[in-house]
Design goal:
Radius of gyration: 31 Å
Catalytic activity: ATP + H2O = ADP + phosphate + H(+); Couples ATP hydrolysis with the unwinding of duplex DNA by translocating in the 3'-5' direction
Cofactor: Zn(2+)
Distance between the termini: 50 Å
Family: Belongs to the helicase family. PriA subfamily.
Number of strands: 35
Strand order of the largest sheet: 15-16-14-17-18-13-19
Domain Helicase C-terminal: 557-727
Structural class: alpha/beta
Enzyme class: isomerase
Helix content: 25-40%
Shape: globular
Strand content: 15-25%
Length: 815
DNA sequence: AGCACGCCGACT
DNA sequence: GTCGGCGTGCTC
């Protein structure tokens, strides 16, 4: 009987691929294992086994697999089901899901290696390039193709290599490179023969003249006696203060032995704190949640900022861990949650594993393996959106914290999934519960709760009855008209800042734009420098004296004269965080100003440093973009200022109002903790805007009602679902005609439910012209059916030769 | 997606 | 004459 496997390859192709396997391989292979398979002319890829079967393909000859890479599945059956759901729902291939889901370390790829043929001698027959290669191979026997390319400084080296191959001068070989390197730590132990007291006495006697060596041995004993644990070489060196040579000498004398243990790169301490006593309201909320979970799979917890949601989560987590089940705690942006990690770590100690993209690949593999092995170290997983892809075996609870955050949605590349929604499906597969938590729930979740699809629990008290901050709107239209502004600060805001500084309290200022100023404009001719690759104005970054594009990374020095008219009359318009920071330094020279935005938080510990400096009160005023609004608690902040609320409100998106409300309330929540009532000042040109009014009264209910009414009126989610199609190409005419064609074909099925084609606000990025089409999925038809139609139209689109090179992205639930 | 193949214009 | 540009087709 012939045996075959269907495998998922990490490429964006819809189909699975079938390979032939031997009888022995059939007995060994299971879905979820990795195999290395030859693909195309020469490459070897890592694939995941999806199915083992006996159905021989008829249209082609299946190739043999190259190698089995695992002894047991590294992907669980539940994961494979979950992947399938994501691929179907978000209209992408399983291969794309695979690429996102698996740490890239697991995806070994072959690299072609060039090896010299030793029997080859007739070097005279070689061309110059060929000779260079052979010469390089004299020094180093094996060279990857890239190196060859570098040596010759040419891109196309394959023809040359083919000639060498013909002349039998070289051999090619595909090498698979294992990327994961376990971290090994050196330990020291005493040679067995000195366990005997007499032998030990003799040893010490023998070392009586070697003071340092004796010292090292004595230190070993005191360490060993104190901890009874294996002793690291490093530790011994540090405590005894001897040089490495001393230890080496003892090893050579066979007094000490060195051995290595593979360790995890990330280790947490044991738990140090016991759980906090819940307040009366928290306790009540906790009980409500448990009651709600009896009836609902998903419960939405709407708890105002500082209501102590985390403490309630902790109690729920503990309850689930005690049943021996795993808990996934999703957070929007893990790098911002060092405070949360610290807190959870105190309660759960080394049961926590953290998973996010700023971790190194090796660290991610370790977390993956720990989860797969159901290790004690990974009972509670704290992670960003991609942690829904970890190989859980027995998930009991998923917490989605700050459920409304947009960073749960992946926009590029595919799979364009929403981690909250994918988490609910994942929980379903595990029969686990989901808790969505937020102070400002997304309309869709609140709607689902209202429709009784989710349970709903509300928590309206701040912990310790701290009052909600007092929010005032400051009209800056007047201020500007009467020239009463101090740079970008209104009189009122200046008063509040001075008051807070006098009281030695800290201040957070929020401006949702980085750089110095978003537009540079010539006062003589009105021309402003644009990015050559994108359809945007360049942002001025004063510190670096540069004009920068925030979309493609293009940058150049600020020109002295206008490139259009030649006059030295360039001026800046609008302002970003950098300008605010500089203004503050001028206005408050005796206070320390900090800035937190994408530009200052690069690197693994970028955030950490700034947050710590602010927490330890080294910084008095912190200026930042929206990243300030996420999950940070500072106990000495009495004032939060929003410099301009209008650009958010006027953003051209159906969710602009909802998002503004959420962001403003979240930033406001940073004000006034423990001690006293905080103050929030929101500067705006339009203080009568209904959203701003709702923010001042913390009126979620009215905001929800009004926004939902509008969504009904204009048929937007959560009333309807949407799919967004994005077309991109370098040729403007090509995309435009493609978009028109697409509109016409979609019109037959969807009629007026299609919006577009439109050029987005930024219609060209990295020299790619963009067109978008929005499809509102009709309520009266099945969503799957509608998606099938879209898929069919996509296929026809791509079979038109002229449109084939146009990039075609489908984004389901593009919000 | 990646990669080979093949066809065409710009240079040693 | 070759190098390298990119359009086209295919991958079990």
């Amino acid at each position: 009987m012939n045996n075959f496997v269907n495998v998922i390859l990490p490429i964006p192709l819809q189909q699975l691929f079938t390979y032939s396997i031997t009888e022995a391989e059939k007995d060994f292979l299971e879905p979820g294992m990795r195999v290395a398979v030859p693909f195309g002319k020469s490459k070897i890829y890592t694939a995941i086994v999806a199915e083992v079967h006996q159905k021989e393909p008829t249209a082609y000859q299946a190739k043999d697999i190259f190698q089995i890479l695992d002894e047991r599945p590294i992907i669980t059956k539940k994961q494979l089901k979950h992947w399938q759901w994501i691929a179907n729902y978000y209209m992408c291939s399983l291969g794309e899901v695979l690429r996102s889901a698996l740490p890239s370390t697991f995806l070994l790829e072959s690299e072609t290696q060039v090896i010299k043929n030793k029997e080859f001698t007739s070097e005279s027959s070689l061309t110059d390039d060929e000779f260079l290669i052979i010469e390089a191979l004299e020094h180093q026997e094996v060279l990857p193709i890239q190196k060859i390319s570098a040596i010759l400084d040419k891109k196309r080296v394959l023809p040359i290599l083919n000639n060498l191959l013909k002349k039998k001068a070289i051999v090619l070989q595909e090498e698979i490179i294992e990327q994961y390197t376990p971290k090994l730590i050196k330990y020291i132990r005493l040679n067995e023969r000195y366990i005997d007291q007499v032998a030990l006495g003799e040893l010490l006697e023998e070392l009586s003249r070697a003071n340092q060596q004796r010292n090292a041995v004595m230190t070993y004993f005191s360490l060993h006696g104190a901890t009874k644990k294996p002793i690291k070489q490093k530790q011994l060196k540090e405590v005894s203060k001897v040089s490495p040579a001393v230890i080496k000498a003892l090893v050579e004398k066979e007094v000490f032995e060195v051995y290595t243990i593979q360790t995890d790169r990330v280790n947490f301490q044991e738990a140090t704190d016991s759980f906090k006593e819940l307040s009366e309201f928290q306790e009540e909320c906790y009980n409500d949640l448990n009651t709600s979970f009896e009836k609902n799979e998903v419960v939405l917890l709407h708890g105002i900022t500082s209501s102590g949601k985390t403490e309630i989560y902790v109690k729920l987590i503990d309850q689930v861990l005690k049943q021996g089940k795993q808990v996934l705690y999703l957070v929007p942006e893990i790098a911002l949650t060092t405070q949360l990690i610290d807190r959870l770590q105190k309660y759960f100690g080394n049961k926590i594993a953290v998973f996010h993209s700023k971790y190194s690949l090796n660290e991610r593999v370790e977390v993956w393996n720990n989860v797969l092995n159901k290790s004690d170290k990974a009972q509670l997983i704290l992670g960003a959106r991609s942690s829904i892809f970890l190989p859980f075996s027995e998930l009991g609870l998923i917490i989605v914290d700050e459920e409304h955050e947009t960073s749960y949605k992946q926009f590029d590349p595919a799979p364009r999934y929403h981690a909250r929604d994918a988490a609910i499906v994942l929980a379903n597969l595990h029969k686990a519960k989901v808790l969505l938590g937020s102070a400002t729930p997304s309309l869709e979740s609140y709607y689902n709760a209202e429709q009784k699809k989710y349970g709903l629990v509300e928590l309206n008290r701040r912990f310790g009855n701290v009052l909600l901050p007092e929010i005032e709107l400051v009209d800056i239209k007047e201020g500007y008209r009467k020239k009463r502004m101090t740079k970008h600060f209104s009189e009122r805001l200046m008063v509040l800042i001075n008051e807070a500084l006098d009281e030695k309290e800290q201040i957070i200022l929020f401006q949702n734009r980085r750089g110095y100023s978003p537009i540079v404009e010539c006062k003589s001719c009105g021309v402003s420098p644009q990015c050559p690759n994108c359809d945007v104005s360049l942002t001025y970054h004063k510190l670096r004296g540069e004009l920068k594009c925030h979309y493609c990374g293009y940058h150049k020095p600020l020109p002295k004269i206008c490139s259009a008219c030649g006059n030295p009359s360039l001026d800046t318009k609008g302002f970003g965080t950098e300008q605010i920071e500089l203004e503050l330094q001028e206005l408050f020279p005796n206070h320390k100003i900090g800035r937190m935005d994408l530009d200052t938080t690069r690197g693994k510990y970028g955030y950490h440093k700034i947050i710590e400096a602010f927490q330890s009160r080294e910084i008095d005023i912190l200026v930042g973009t929206q990243m300030l609004s996420k999950g940070l608690d500072f106990d000495n902040v009495s004032l939060v200022g929003v410099l301009n609320a209008d650009n958010m409100l006027n953003f051209p998106d159906f969710r602009a109002h909802e998002k503004s409300f959420q962001m403003l309330l979240q930033v406001s929540g940073r004000a006034g903790r423990a001690k006293k009532r905080g103050k929030v000042a929101i500067q705006t040109f339009n203080p009568y805007h209904q959203i701003l009014q709702q923010v001042t009264t913390n009126d979620y209910a009215t905001m929800y009602k009004e926004q939902l009414y509008e969504r009904h009126q204009y048929k937007y989610p959560p009333i309807l679902r949407m799919v967004k199609i994005t077309l991109k190409h370098r040729d403007y005419i090509k995309v435009t005609s493609g978009a028109d064609w697409l509109y016409t074909s979609l019109y037959n099925t969807f009629g007026t439910n299609i919006l577009g084609p439109t050029s987005p606000a930024i219609s060209r990025i990295r020299n790619q012209h963009i067109k978008t089409i929005l499809i509102k999925l009709p309520q009266d038809k099945s969503i799957n059916l509608s998606k099938a139609v879209i898929q069919k139209i996509k296929n026809s689109f791509q079979s038109i030769p002229n449109y084939r090179p146009i990039r075609f992205n489908v984004d389901v639930d593009n919000y």
